[in-house]
Design brief:
Elements (H helix, E strand, L loop, with lengths): L1 H14 L1 E2 L2 E7 L4 E3 L12 E6 L3 E6 L6 E2 L7 E3 L6 E3 L8 E8 L3 E12 L6 E9 L3 E9 L4 E9 L2 E11 L5 E8 L2 E8 L3 E6 L6 H47 L21 E7 L17 E7 L8 H15 L1
């Protein structure tokens, strides 16, 4: 903040007389009005002149005559007869220089002296945070403030949200009549670009751990977790589907190997093992005696299972059958 005060004091000094000249800053394209501070009295032998850089005549006024504007400034300059002030319209950078008012007689007498400086409006500034080092409680911030033709960098130290400026470096120096500064004001870091006719600034809040970076990390972590969860669900579904398909294939193969109505222990007809003894179950029902339904309740029929064993048939092997056939042939012969 002290720098702004010092720069303001410098501008105030520039607006005062220096070596007899009064500095006047004017914005490019604006109008310039110059007054005569001393008394001016004309007679037949005395004329009044406004000159630029002491050699170029801008306008003049003679005794009892109307003011005259010289060719180069015709249409752009106006000399007022009442107070001999000069109006210069739509000033350009080429109009920067010394303007002097003279009373011309036997000797020339200066009655006004101005040094005119034509300036453009300052360009916009760009304030960026280049780096943040440290923890969330204490850190150093490096910021850069730049314009089209100048640039400065500054370092701030922040502890528990209390910041102070540590260092400032000028990377590209601004012109003599303009200023580019970075300073801390309240909760903001401010970059100010100003000259005598205009000013602009840019500001940012200092953060040891920027909110943007924190939000990005949270979003990335959440997205990664969601993608991992979806991937796991997809893998589980694929494994379950393959397992169910394998079970269906096994059931289908088992059904093809053992047709309906035949168990694993049943043998195919014609096989020698089919002659093994089997068990047959018969259902026998006993009919209840006829009694009066009025005196007794009708008992439920009882079911009795009886096991009947069928006689086993002797197993005849193929070799025995062949021997019997040979014996039969021999007997017939």
């Amino acid at each position: 903040m002290e720098r702004i005060v010092l720069f303001g004091a410098f501008l105030w000094l520039c607006s005062c007389e220096v070596n007899g000249f009064q500095y006047v800053f004017v914005r490019h394209g604006k109008d310039l009005h110059l007054d005569v501070e001393k008394s001016v009295v004309l007679d037949k032998k005395t004329d009044f002149f406004w000159k630029f850089n002491e050699t170029n005549n801008v306008a003049k006024c003679a005794f009892n005559n109307d003011p005259v504007v010289f060719d180069k400034y015709e249409g752009r300059a106006v000399l007022f007869r009442q107070n001999y002030s000069l109006l210069l319209k739509n000033v350009q950078h080429s109009d920067s220089g010394d303007y002097t008012a003279f009373m011309v007689s036997n000797e020339d007498q200066k009655v006004a002296e101005y040094k005119i400086i034509v300036q453009d409006a300052v360009s916009p500034v760009d304030l960026t945070v280049d780096s943040v080092s440290g923890s969330s409680d204490s850190c150093n911030l490096t910021v850069t403030c730049s314009t089209v033709d100048s640039q400065i960098s500054s370092i701030f130290t922040c502890v528990a949200q209390n910041c102070s400026q540590v260092e400032e470096n000028s990377l590209k120096t601004p012109d003599y009549y303009s200023s580019l500064i970075v300073y801390l004001h309240g909760d903001f870091i401010i970059c100010n670009h100003s000259n005598n006719v205009s000013w602009t600034d840019s500001k940012t809040k200092p953060y040891c751990e920027t909110r943007t970076v924190s939000s990005v990390n949270i979003i990335i972590a959440a997205a990664s977790g969601l993608c991992g969860f979806i991937f796991i669900i997809v893998i589980i579904c694929i494994v379950a589907k393959r397992k169910r398909r394998n079970q269906e294939n096994q059931l289908y193969e088992a059904a093809q190997e053992h047709p309906p109505g035949q168990t694993r222990n049943e043998n195919v007809p014609g096989d020698a093992s089919s002659l093994s003894p089997t068990s047959t179950y018969a259902l026998v029902e006993f009919h209840p005696k006829t009694e009066s339904t009025k005196s007794k309740k009708i008992p439920q029929p009882e079911t009795v299972y009886a096991q009947v064993t069928r006689a086993t048939r002797p197993r005849v092997t193929a070799q025995q059958t062949e021997l019997e056939n040979i014996s039969s042939i021999n007997s017939q012969g």
